[in-house]
């Protein structure tokens, strides 16, 4: 069976039926968004990797014990587990996930860019790390909505319910998050747009 | 009658949360409303930039997750 061509729902069904390669495809498909969601909250790669494992362990147990609810998208479900674990981590640590600013820690991206020099990979990763820093600098409420919607794949309705605000407030926060991020990027020395259109 | 779209509509459009009828109407409006199109383009460019912030966990962690799954048996 070619798992690459299956949608998430079919992959979950196949995995529950015993096909481990279906799970491998699900992991490869979603690991980046799940990991980034966690990393933007905890700001530490070691903690983020631990929580990523914990997220998928929870998902494995839920699916293999027959408790997986087919309602909604798999991506939203797995990212919500990750988001909740990251927030719980901060509660345990008695720290606020939304107040401290990024101190510039560099995250090494393990993506292999074919035919790219080590130097260009380094520059690209530094640019991406800088963008993550700019996201950290957004006002807390805006950053929260941005992470939940763009990386954790939650709907604005779900975000409104999770954060106790109206859907219009969630939409407004997202809009200002994007506008403020655009301004920060324009003021920043790094040429994001060049990266956007580079192959 | 031309419908007026809000910035909130644009954000919902960006994330595919506008109902189909509204989405089609907004796309028509984008063809003729320069200001709306520019606002949409700005938001869209920033949204695209957000993909640049995506990063990957180490292969070691990914492999550990996949290996762990194989050790868990079914408990229906």
From TrEMBL, chain A:
Residues 129-169 form the RNA polymerase sigma factor 70 region 4 type domain. GO terms for molecular function: DNA binding; sigma factor activity. The keyword Aminoacyl-tRNA synthetase does not apply. It comes from Rufibacter hautae. The keyword rRNA processing does not apply. Pfam families: Sigma70_r2 (PF04542), Sigma70_r4_2 (PF08281). NCBIfam families: sigma70-ECF. Residues 26-95 form the RNA polymerase sigma-70 region domain. GO terms for biological process: DNA-templated transcription initiation. Keywords: DNA-binding, Sigma factor, Transcription, Transcription regulation. Belongs to the sigma-70 factor family. ECF subfamily. This is Sigma-70 family RNA polymerase sigma factor.
From TrEMBL, chain B:
It comes from the Bacteria. This is Anti-sigma factor.
